[in-house]
Predict the structure.
Amino acid sequence: MASIFANVEVGPKIEVFALNKLYVEDTSPVKVNLGVGAYRTPDGRPWVLPVVKKTEIQVAESENINHEYLPVTGLESFTKASVRLLLGEESAAVKENRAHGVQALSGTGALRLGAEFLSRKLGRNVVYYSDPTWENHHKVFSGAGFTDIRTYRYWNAEKRGIDIDGLLDDLKNAPEGAVIILHACAHNPTGCDPTQEQWKLIADVIESKKLFPFFDSAYQGFASGDPVRDAFAVRYFESRGSELFCAQSYAKNFGLYCERVGNLTVVQKDAATTAAVLSQLTLIVRAMYSNPPAFGARIVDAVLNDPILRKEWYECIKIMSNRIIKMRKALYDELVRLGTPGTWNHIVDQIGMFSYTGLNEKQVKLLIDKFHIYLLKTGRISMSGLNENNVSHVAKAIHEAVTTIPN
């Protein structure tokens, strides 16, 4: 009798993980990993934030900690702290009890939780994400039941910056009620964020067209070193009275990649709807994974709610963001010194972990095959993979690729 699994096809590999596997297996002494979206120290190692290391020991040794289930919606002190971090202590939505959070399985889990609610409970079917965007956005929303998935223009390849006119035009033509995925800061993969004035124009269109903003905030504090600056877009929308979702992740800014710590912040016009919305989100969580893990959330909770630990965390995210800014300038300087054809200002103008270099697939292949430099086929690189020892090697490789292979 044939197996019921006999006709299951092998699925496509997830590019970033397949790329990392190739890097690990490469024995070259000059290999460089610019694919994985995780912070690395100048010597290429993962960094456990000192404040996180100290806090996790305190949490583990606490006599008040046991291994009972958390509530379905998560650790309440953590979700409240997350909402305050995102919206600010003076937020009207926070003060009026119109904003609340649900703990989720990092940013991806928060996106899926929000997508499930919008699809199953509100009947939303149309979603837009930027072109390009983080590749998982499509999988998350299609998996949640969205069948009409569209893109809005974002990247201008010629200018190597945001196509703000195309973006606004596409949003103006979106149907009423469409869900619009917006990167709160450090746009992945381009590293190009709208200016504050451009955010205001985007908010005007979303409000006038009655669209629903769903922010993806994976890098608050990590992008610029300032959590307030990185939260501008979400806070501006909230200040205008917009209802919104925001998926928050603590993978990058706390270095808690494997702990899967996230939060879905919900902002509403009326506190009277909170109980109903929260009850439906509770049922969705119950059906998907029942309740969230505790340890990572307890670490973030302890840090955000303690002024001394919070200050130490601010210092850590400044260290990470400043090193990435330094590496941007180092790569730019090397490319300019080599006289590499084209303009490279976008590398220093971009923000956050990633840079959309403008390299094409053939150029990327050359970097991988000849120079042992691993990056996504889109040309996106993780800036934290650069350091003082390899930036010259990377710049020379880019120079040869651009010089010998046309765009």
The chain is about 45% helix and 15% strand.
